[in-house]
From TrEMBL:
Transmembrane segments: none annotated. GO terms for molecular function: magnesium ion binding; phosphoacetylglucosamine mutase activity. Belongs to the phosphohexose mutase family. Residues 546-600 form the Alpha-D-phosphohexomutase C-terminal domain. This is Phosphoacetylglucosamine mutase. Residues 97-133 form the Alpha-D-phosphohexomutase alpha/beta/alpha domain. GO terms for biological process: carbohydrate metabolic process; UDP-N-acetylglucosamine biosynthetic process. It comes from Babesia gibsoni.
Amino acid sequence: MLNTTGKSHGCDCHGLEVNIREGPGIPEGYLDLDYGTCGFRGPVDTPPNHLDHVVYRCGVLLAALPFLRNPNGLYNTTDEEDSIEGGAVALMDRPVIAAGVVITASHNPAQDNGIKLLEMDGNILVAEWEKECTALVNFRGPLTVAVCQLLHKYGIGPLRRNRAPYKIFIGHDTRSSSEHLTQLFIEGAKAMADAMKLEGTACVNVGRVTTPTVGFLLNQSMFDATDDQPYIEALKEAFFNSLDLLEQLGHFTPVKKTDPKLPLFYDCAYGVGGCVMFKFFDCLRALGILPHLCNSPQSLEEGGENPLNKECGSNYVLSYKKPPANVVEAGTIYDDKWFCTFDGDADRLAYFSPNKGSVRIVDGVHLLVIKMKFFAFILSRLKEPPSEPIRFGLLINPYANGSARKYIEKMIKEYNTTIAGVKWNLVICRVGIKHMQAKVPNYDVALFYEANGHGNVVFNKKCALFKNPEKCPYKKLIEYIAVMFSSPLGDAMNNSIFIEMALKVMRLTYEDVRQYYDELAYVNLSVRIPTSKRRMFKATAGNDIILEEPKVLQKFIEEETAKVRGARAFVRPSGTESLCRVYAEAPTEEEAQKLAKDIEAYLLSLL
């Protein structure tokens, strides 16, 4: 049975008198959710109201989070000088603390939804709090009991009025369920704020925005934002500052008009990217590119079916290695034209060009290579080597094509001998963007990409590249570029306008980039697993492409892979969905297809 949102239950636990509105209860038929790479995700109505309690309880936790982390500094203040009439803690003059949330299921179909939780710097929630969040979401019993136990565990108490300024920024995508779930999250956050007497805590609904937008607002401390306009203005300013400086340095010649022979079509997967990307078209026109929007939510009839990610978008193109269905249906009109394709919340991108039903692809690893070459282009032109060695990290994961990895290793060897003062390193990370982000602090510049197009550049602004930029225009250029990459989550729109600028400056085409290496044939399959059997598939701790269970499946993979010279294959249980992902790579398409299909068949035989 579902509890009503307004119903409250009091609890006297460990000396704490907690009274919190219970919110939606766990629906009948619900199976515990796991915290995935970025949060929770699943069907909205299977069972009915499946995610209502999930987002409500995420609101409860996020409202309390900074106080749980620092109870004595932010909550349990007892000094007389920190108190005001009525016993409230006087923290109003302290800097604002903040966090963020995006209601989205990224590349999943429209009937799914989910929630991503973001830290104050715009990064995803740190791993040590995933367990607390999961436990609260799956807790069966009065919510008040769970909250009371949580507060006691982290030393909160007694409950008192608190005015510490805390803002939670909430954005959502274009799914029909997103506004409803947004309101439930806000209700959960308010319920916890009322229970803990957090008078300075406020939710700011920035509306329908891309996931990277919320990360950008947090990272740049744009705490007065009420929509995505500050993000758009800051990103465009950084882009044009970069372009103007490149012109001054003689690396870019302004164009007087767009070239009709240089169209670029944006496949927005009917997602939120289509609501924003056109606002950056002046950046592309400045490069001579004629941009077009397609598969945009604005083109849909009101009240009609939401085809979000349906036979379109980056996940579809990369998974099936074919153009969106409506591009194929258009016949040859788009043949040899280039598209930039996003996922549903616009944090991933890839490029493709259709030709008679087939497709040429520039994936995330190609994009990493473009950026690698562009930064080498800049760093090789510094007037003098940096005063301290620059640690440049290139982070990829096992989905990176074997040929790409060899090419990157070759370029690193070259750059380490020709570019003074920079040490280039390649790191193979576990699958999932959070594992790449965990390696970022080890480098002054961290350039990371998954093959699926999820990637970013993160700068350590205390390193030598940011010292005395007024004395070196190339350091100033890096300073501008760093602003462009201020969303720690990776940003499809920012990445796209940067990639176009980099290609223009280096006088490269997409086809040039594709010729850097000949990819090994590869196959990506997603195998649906009954939710009740999700937990029979378990990856090895520390290496998520080796199965701990079922052992017979891992043995089968190794035996079949050994039969094909130069092949690789693995099965990876999804962290957010009831499915396993099968990846196979081999010298020929036929060998890769057979290897993937044989593994899929054996996996299904175990169910």
